[in-house]
Amino acid sequence: xxxxxxxxxxxxxxxxxxxxxxxxxxxxxxxxxxxxxxxxxxxxxxxxxxxxxxxxxxxxxxxxxxxxxxxxxxxxxxxxxxxxxxxxxxxxxxxxxxxxxxxxxxxxxxxxxxxxxxxxxxxx
Length: 124
Prior knowledge:
This protein has four helices and no strands. It is mainly α. It has one domain. The protein is rod-shaped and about 110 Å long. The relative contact order is 0.14. The model has no long low-confidence stretch (mean pLDDT about 85).
């Protein structure tokens, strides 16, 4: 093979690959991104399962990040998966607290309505 062909980048059967070439760009950790987006969307669109669903996808994203790290990639998306997991847990805790608080508030209000006639004097 001539030096001109080697310098111009043409491949021939006698071309020897360069050593130390990186394995290429790491694939995108889709599960980590899905977990983060779904967990964050729970604060904007109040479906009650966003936090739990985002946390599940984030755990799957962390497993994918471990697989990518074992394959030798440096950009695994584990930080994105961890952020989605934390947001999902926080959203689930806040949602549970709001539901329990609403139940207590409704019970208190119904009890207050039942005791209210004892304090009100009806004038006729």
